[in-house]
Amino acid sequence: MLPTMDDFDFEEKGVILRIDINSPLEPGTLRILDNWRMRKVMPTLKELKEKNARVIMLAHQGRPGKWDFTGLERHAEEMSRLLGEEIKFVDDVYGEKALQEIEKLKKGEILLLDNVRKCSEEMEKKAAEEHAQAEMVKKLAPYADAFVNDAFAAAHRKQCSLLGFMPVLPSFAGRLMQKEVEMVDMLLKKAERPRLFIFGGGKYENAIDVIDKLLQDGTADKIMLGGMPANAFLAAMGKYDMEVDERVPKMLERYKDKLVLPSATLDGKDIDEESIERFKEEIENAASIFISGPMGVFEDENYRRGTEEILKSIARSSAFSMAGGGHTAAAINMLGLEEEFSYVSTGGGALERMLMGERLPVIEALIKFKR
Q1: pLDDT 10s digits, 205-219
Q2: End-to-end CA distance of the chain, in Å?
Q3: What pLDDT digit, counting tens, does each position of 49-90 carry?
Q4: Domains in the chain, start-ordered, CATH in brackets?
Q5: Cβ–Cβ under 8 Å, residues 5 and 158
């Protein structure tokens, strides 16, 4: 059983909270373009604030060497606006500057430390017990009575701030992490049939593994494809020109009755009108639906129609509906449909691995070190 925030009294306690607020930024200005992940951690933050906890937050943005690798001052400002209360910020993670600010923290106050990926030890992949020896953990853990991990979107990573505090502090899943795990469990084990899984987006290699697993173990009744996954299967049928993985024709043969492909595409960048109508029929017939990835190049309005029509059709349906992946969430939010879905996940890689039946390091460690 996953330890959750129900298992600890946070009243006036010191808490280290790891969140994932990695956000799309505007090139050049580095302005935050979408605060969706920040909104998703608000229930956990509000709950800790109501308990008068002293909260030390850890988070990342981008990765070293990439243009969107930056400090978190803007994130603190945006989260303060969302919370309606000041979230303090310090441009340090566990140096003197950070420790001084932590010591000043009063009950009910929240401090966001700077981008944890500025620390070289954060980028090392290690087991929780090894990470527990890191300077980050040794310096910060003495200020906390508990560790809360609410970073589901990073739960597939073996990094220091995600795992290192668990061997040394009572550790719990935050409300977002708890909800994400519950919803994936619901989708894979309890959701009504027929279950329709829809995959799109700009890559197909990872989708191949997920499709194979879901059909092989009978989790999915049908799988519908748009975007690059559809192009790959259409190429195997001689209807589209691209080189494909040798597994694709084999899967086409093995699962032809369970795969729903577009009859044609618009230059491989969107599904055509006939396919949109056929896909809508499949959606109407499903009791449970999962979608990951747009049907085409959604960013270009000339190739937006397929994605828009399919998402609206899912939103209108009475089926249990779940969506995942950054581009899918962005499209849903752009269309104002989030409330119409049963659940929209913050996870990309983490969600994909759970669909594959893989164990996520963060969830495994939470269970392993449960006190």
Answers
A1: 888 999 999 999 999
A2: 12
A3: 999 999 999 999 999 999 999 999 999 999 999 999 999 999
A4: 5-176 (3.40.50.1260), 191-355 (3.40.50.1260)
A5: no
